[in-house]
Amino acid sequence: MRILVTGGSGFVGRFVCEDLLGRGHEVVASIRSPAAARRLPAGVSGIHVAPLGPDTEWRPALRDVQAVVHLAGLAHVLRGAPDEAYDLANTQGTVRLARQASDAGVRRFVFVSTVKGHGEGSPGRALEASDPVHPGDAYAASKARAEEALLAQHGRGGMSVAIVRPPLVYGPGVKANFRRMMEMVARGVPLPLGSVRNRRSLVSVWNLCDFVFACLSSPHAPGRAWLVSDDEDVSTPDLLRRLGVALGRPARVFPFPPSILRAVLAGIGMGPEFEKISESLFVNVEPARRELGWQPRLTLAEGLARTVAARG
Question: Tens digit of pLDDT for each residue in 185-214?
Fold first, then answer.
């Protein structure tokens, strides 16, 4: 197939492009600047497209394309972005792309969304894709609205739609909390997180690529949303220790009352960061195993080892 990957120069996009190329597909990636073009993997064609929004012109990029993997969007880590900006890019921009893709004869549209549409935590059990959606911020809400609009378009013009809701994605180039934790373990920083008792799902970028391809190729994927992970949930202190193993040095994790730590961090404006790493958020991937025949390519230990090895 000829496949358009939006956001192909980003953290996940570069791996998706490489994975699809390795499977023998022709890959074209939307880019916004010459610098983004230089970040594309060798063999991927870049085509300039204006920033994602309700008026973006996608038709040149969609020419002769059979499938779209939509990764581009306004990221949740962008501080200070107004709520309207998320709606314009992530909701209206996605709907615009899907409509033009359908008109162009695209047969399969895979939208990589976020598990955060379900909120910031699990309801005392593994999340299911059929669980209610109650996003906790403008980013997640914009993705959830885009999902709803896309599923309403499923089948329009013969184009099928599949939604992927990953949890935290890690791999070479990962940023935010995961990167900070990895660097602190590498430096031997003492971390007062040993008493945190939570359960988190993660997915390596390699397992996510595998899953995206499953959604592109399986006849059972379209028309619904899917949850994905490495299928090996861990607590935050356990993740830190596993990072230590991958780094070849012990994680200096020690016990400390979470209630006190929460209060201290809230007092210095870091309450939301603590909640993100201390709450439970884990997902059930059994439907993907059973209905798509998918299983993770790498274990959590293998994914962490690859991530650390590429750290530089």
Answer: 999 999 999 999 999 999 999 999 999 999
Alpha-helix residue ranges (DSSP H) falling in the chain: 11-22, 34-38, 59-62, 83-86, 93-103, 138-153, 176-187, 205-217, 236-247, 258-267, 271-278, 286-292, 300-309
Q: Which CATH superfamily is domain 2-170+202-231+282-297 in?
A: NAD(P)-binding Rossmann-like Domain (3.40.50.720)
Catalytic residue status for 170: no
> Of these residues, 86, 109, 139, 294, which one is catalytic?
139
What's the token pair of residue 154? 């499923």
Domains of the chain, residue spans? 2-170+202-231+282-297, 176-199+234-278
Digit-coded pLDDT (tens) for 160-184: 999 999 999 999 999 888 999 999 9
